């Protein structure tokens, strides 16, 4: 009856097919698997508790949600907007390119400033929106959403294409270890060096795209914000 221990897999498949709560399904599958394997319920709870304590750092992201909410409640977005208003000549496209550059430099030095919830939503996007508002005044909702998407994309591009430029990044070490296990003599320095041109190319392509976005907004709105002031 060893096969009965695979019942947890059956429970997970059924739960996912029926679109039940993922966490509940996984926990039930774990408890049932433990019981049919001869483990007592108390021991199962001890195993789950130990696993949670050992991986408790994963749950730290829950702390960022109230922190970001409080920051926005007490004017973080307004302060970001006011800062942009003092910087003349900074368009939405230039702000997007600047952030991706900062994001890639931070990745190169393994400085953690990223995060859609922690950084883009409360700081970067309001700055991009303020840049367009200063120059054009009010813009269409579709263009507002487009700038939101490009703000998020700047974070994703900067993170994805520059994450391996840091020599001790987990991705670099994983690649080096995998290549070494396959018999290839590849050092982390070589991997990081090869990643730098990729990050620069990604930045260049994004800069061109952001420049074209500025031109598109110029053609559509002119300089309404400037004339209005």
Please explain how this structure is put together.
By secondary structure, the protein is an all-alpha fold. Helices cover 76% and strands 0% of the residues. The chain is built from 11 helices and no strands. It has helices at residues 7-17, 22-36, 41-54, 61-73, 76-85, 92-108, 116-136, 141-162, 170-181, 188-221, 224-228. Helix 6 (92-108) runs antiparallel to helix 7 (116-136) and helix 8 runs antiparallel to helix 10 (188-221). The longest helix has 34 residues, at 188-221. The mean pLDDT is 84.
Topology:
Layout: H1 7-17, H2 22-36, H3 41-54, H4 61-73, H5 76-85, H6 92-108, H7 116-136, H8 141-162, H9 170-181, H10 188-221, H11 224-228
Helix pairs in contact: 1-2, 5-7, 6-7, 6-8, 6-10, 7-8, 8-10
Short description:
This protein has 229 residues and is mainly α. Helices cover 76% and strands 0% of the residues. It contains eleven helices and no strands.
Strand runs, count = 0
String of helices and strands: HHHHHHHHHHH
Give the DSSP E fraction (strand runs of 2 or more residues): under 5%
Number of helices: 11
Instruction: Report the sheet with the most strands, covering strand number, pairing sense and barrel closure.
Output: none
Write down the overall geometry.
extended
Low-confidence stretches: none
Overall SS class: mainly alpha
Q: Calculate the mean pLDDT score and round it.
A: 84
Radius of gyration: 24 Å
State the end-to-end distance.
80 Å
> Percent range for helical residues?
over 70%
């Amino acid at each position: 009856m060893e096969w009965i221990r695979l019942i947890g897999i059956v429970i997970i498949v059924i739960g996912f097919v029926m679109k039940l709560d993922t966490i509940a399904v996984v926990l039930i599958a774990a408890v049932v698997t433990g019981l049919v394997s001869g483990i007592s319920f108390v021991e199962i709870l001890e195993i789950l508790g130990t696993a949670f304590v050992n991986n408790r750092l994963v749950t730290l992201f829950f702390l960022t949600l109230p922190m970001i909410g409080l920051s926005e409640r007490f004017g973080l977005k307004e302060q970001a907007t006011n800062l942009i208003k003092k910087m003349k000549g900074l368009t939405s496209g230039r702000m997007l390119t600047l952030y991706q550059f900062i994001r890639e430099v931070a990745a190169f030095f393994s400085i953690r400033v990223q995060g859609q919830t922690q950084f883009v939503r409360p700081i970067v996007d309001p700055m991009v929106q303020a840049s367009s508002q200063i120059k054009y005044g009010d813009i269409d909702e579709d263009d507002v959403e487009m700038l939101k998407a490009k703000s998020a994309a700047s974070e994703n591009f900067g993170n994805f294409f520059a994450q391996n430029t840091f020599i001790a990044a987990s991705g670099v070490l994983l690649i080096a270890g995998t290549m070494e296990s396959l018999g290839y003599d590849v050092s982390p320095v070589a991997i990081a060096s090869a990643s730098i041109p990729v990050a620069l190319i990604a930045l260049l392509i994004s800069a061109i795209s952001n420049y074209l976005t500025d031109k598109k907004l110029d053609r559509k709105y002119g300089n309404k914000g400037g004339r209005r002031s």
